[in-house]
Specification:
By secondary structure, the protein is mainly beta. Helix content is 0%, strand content 51%. The strands form two sheets. Strands 2, 4, 5, 6, 9, 10 and 11 form a seven-stranded mixed beta sheet that branches. The chain starts with a strand and ends with a strand. 35% of the residues are buried.
Length: 127
């Protein structure tokens, strides 16, 4: 079992930056692929970014490519999402997710691929 806790959300003006963190506890974190998703009011949960457990492979939604960076520190059991050049349309609750895998370079991009979820952190971008 893995527990995930997100932090770092808040209110920021358009063009600003935030860094989200997802701290994991429980079983060996380094064997889990991780992802970030977001959900705005009235919309479905959508994929944002993913990273393999080795950290060597990453993937981004087109809407955030070039602005967001996902990374991980397995020694700290933490995954990060650096968000730059934020836009009002980035406003949402952001969730991190994890799934165990034996494949060091595999990442996952759909919610059903993941077994564990955090409680979410609100990100609000004002115009």
């Amino acid at each position: 079992q893995v527990q995930l806790v997100e932090s770092g959300g808040g209110l920021v003006q358009a063009g600003g930056s935030l860094r989200l963190s997802c701290a994991a506890s429980g079983r060996t974190f380094s064997s889990y692929a991780e992802g970030w998703f977001r959900q705005a009011p009235g919309k479905e949960r959508e994929f944002v970014a993913a990273i393999s457990w080795s950290g060597r492979s990453t993937y981004y939604a087109d809407s955030v490519k070039g602005r967001f960076t996902i990374s991980r520190d397995n020694a700290k059991n933490t995954v990060y999402l650096q968000m730059n050049s934020l836009k009002p349309e980035d406003t949402a609750v952001y969730y991190c997710a994890a799934v165990p895998t034996f494949r060091s370079s595999t990442y996952y991009t759909t919610p059903r691929d993941y077994d564990y979820w955090g409680q979410g952190t609100q990100v609000t971008v004002s115009s």
